[in-house]
Amino acid sequence: MGLRAVVMGALGVLLLVGGCGGAEGREAERAALGSVPAAEEAEVRPAAAPASDVVRVVTVLDGDTFTVSDGRTVRVLGIDSCELDTGAGREARANAQALLPVGRSVTLRAEPGVDRDPYSRHLRYVTTPAGSDLGTAMIGEPHTGVYEGGDAAPAYVAGLRRADDGPRVCDTPTAAPTTTPAPATTAPRTAAPRTAAPATTRPAPAPQPLAQPAPRPAPAPEPEPEPEPEPQRESSGCHPSYTPCVPDGPDLDCPQIGFAVTVTGPDEFRLDGSDNDGKGCESYG
């Protein structure tokens, strides 16, 4: 029943009781008036906020995935860090370990209507022990980018884009230091006196005809490359771009695969890192 109906009912009671008069009428009038604030309070009471979980960190797997004390594996909503087989991926895990110390408590908050990904990882917003948002803290580094999978709230993703420092860079080449050898120090040499050889008169050599180089054979035409066949998604549940079988689904990380793979098609999971050598998750080989 709406607020308007409650108020109109109370006014009707007042009119009826007022016609009767007396002490009983005044008591009924006060009872009717007292019911209006209670009805109004019930009408504007806000809905309860989504519940959050407080758990302890057990293991940080990479820059966006970790395990907690109740046995769950948590995938952070809104971000995507480089894989562990790249230097940037190892930096991402080190940053996440600094923000999520093992044994410390963190707060997990779910997005309404979103619980797990296809690999049973729990998708959650994460508040660090220091009280900061983990996604916002990680997005400011080159090793982490915005995940466009559509699981996080649009307003939250928009905030991550504003805080992002630029495109994700998963290759961090470190050039080996080069040293220039110091010049050798030697004592100056004293030139020995030369004795002039007796002059001899030799006849000038007769001119010889120049040999003509043999003509080079024309290079054979290079064969035209055959177009690579488009990978077909099989009904077996394996992703067509990786060998051996990798489950087909969004954003699978190397720690969840656990073995080295060969990239035979589009690298949808970005397992090859930045060297594009056709091999992914090489640290598990």
Radius of gyration (CA) equals 39 Å
CATH architecture group name of the domain at 52-163 = Beta Barrel
Largest sheet: 5 strands, mixed, barrel
Structural class: alpha+beta
Question: Secondary-structure element sequence?
Answer: HHEEEEHEEHEHEHEE
Quick recap of the structure?
The protein is an alpha+beta fold and 285 residues long. It has helices at 3-20, 22-44, 87-99, 134-139, 154-163, 254-257, and strands at 52-62, 65-68, 73-76, 79-81, 105-109, 122-127, 144-146, 242-243, 261-263, 279-280. The protein contains 6 helices and 10 strands, in the order ααββββαββαβαβαββ.
Q: What's the helix and strand layout?
A:
Layout: H1 3-20, H2 22-44, E1 52-62, E2 65-68, E3 73-76, E4 79-81, H3 87-99, E5 105-109, E6 122-127, H4 134-139, E7 144-146, H5 154-163, E8 242-243, H6 254-257, E9 261-263, E10 279-280
Helix pairs in contact: 1-2
Overview of this protein structure:
The chain has 285 residues and is an alpha+beta fold. Among the domains are: 112 residues, Beta Barrel (OB fold (Dihydrolipoamide Acetyltransferase, E2P)), CATH 2.40.50.90; 47 residues, no CATH class. It contains 6 helices and 10 strands, in the order ααββββαββαβαβαββ. The strands form 3 sheets. The protein has a 5-stranded mixed β-barrel with strand order 1-2-3-6-5. α1 runs antiparallel to α2.
